[in-house]
């Protein structure tokens, strides 16, 4: 094996402490790992040298022999010409570094869902409102550490803060390193002797938070609003989750919605339907006057332009459709009855047969 300056490869001095050597190796291994530099052929060679240097300098016995003889000859156990670099990388950083597993890494907080019921009008025109969301927040007493105020978590004596228990096994094929989550600290690297009574060691407390919600015009049932960073706090310094507000629109007593259009029914007298005139119809913004042409038939539909729902994010607005219902009177006095009979006579109808079907049935049939 060619003589190499392992101190120079790792960029440390000969009197460097083990932690300094370890830190230098971590930085270089991350920088020159083949998975991150697949297009660079020299990276693989550099990565082999870095691992070889660390295997020697991290082992007190091998380091002593290297310092004495100035080379790695006769040490054995370092065949970096073959094998999977990911296994070497994982043996040092742990498999979870690449796979995202294990409890020691920062974890993003959970997302929250809040169901919000709003009125038909609020869905049409939008609204800004406030809601109270029950949520877990960082404990103000211990600042999220879980330890009693005035104390702090201590380094786990079993894993020495790494969150992992490593065991090395030597075989004829080389050394194999098994890495498991430390059972004592559950991979945290720290243990709490005196827990915070405010959060009972969890580092979190439950609290209702007031959140401002801006509902855009044109939303409908099932629409989701996302408020970033309003979810649950992350673990071990991880980012906070998001809050998702799911909207439910109450049914309206008068209007029905189809897309951005709305519709309603409106009753008028049979006289107005026959002679025409004006009637007052409801809209989402109040009552308006609608002109009824003479001879309007039942179930005629009139359109009120621009009286519907706004299209989300635009100034475009749908229409309102008014379905006309002609009311037939259930009771009439003698004068009204005689006038209708006179109308039937002028219309050439057989007055003798009106009684067979009923005058009101004839009127109803006349209007569809």
UniProtKB/TrEMBL annotation:
Its cofactor is Zn(2+). Residues 126-208 form the CR-type domain. The keyword RNA-binding does not apply. CXXCXGXG motif repeats lie at residues 139-146, 156-163, 182-189, 196-203. Residues 5-70 form the J domain. Zn(2+) 2 binds at residues 156, 159, 182, 185. Zn(2+) 1 binds at residues 139, 142, 196, 199. Binds 2 Zn(2+) ions per monomer. A zinc finger (CR-type) spans 126-208. InterPro entries: DnaJ, DnaJ_C, DnaJ_domain, DnaJ_domain_CS, HSP40/DnaJ_pept-bd, HSP_DnaJ_Cys-rich_dom, HSP_DnaJ_Cys-rich_dom_sf, J_dom_sf. GO terms for cellular component: cytoplasm. Pfam families: DnaJ, DnaJ_C, DnaJ_CXXCXGXG. GO terms for molecular function: ATP binding; heat shock protein binding; unfolded protein binding; zinc ion binding. It is found in: Cytoplasm. One of its GO terms (biological process) is protein refolding. PROSITE patterns: DNAJ_1, DNAJ_2, ZF_CR. Keywords: Chaperone, Cytoplasm, DNA replication, Metal-binding, Repeat, Stress response, Zinc, Zinc-finger. The J domain is necessary and sufficient to stimulate DnaK ATPase activity. Zinc center 1 plays an important role in the autonomous, DnaK-independent chaperone activity of DnaJ. Zinc center 2 is essential for interaction with DnaK and for DnaJ activity. NCBIfam families: DnaJ_bact, PRK10767.1. Homodimer. Belongs to the DnaJ family. Participates actively in the response to hyperosmotic and heat shock by preventing the aggregation of stress-denatured proteins and by disaggregating proteins, also in an autonomous, DnaK-independent fashion. Unfolded proteins bind initially to DnaJ; upon interaction with the DnaJ-bound protein, DnaK hydrolyzes its bound ATP, resulting in the formation of a stable complex. GrpE releases ADP from DnaK; ATP binding to DnaK triggers the release of the substrate protein, thus completing the reaction cycle. This is Chaperone protein DnaJ. It comes from Candidatus Sediminicultor quintus. The lineage of its organism: Bacteria, Pseudomonadati, Atribacterota, Candidatus Phoenicimicrobiia, Candidatus Pheonicimicrobiales. The gene is dnaJ.
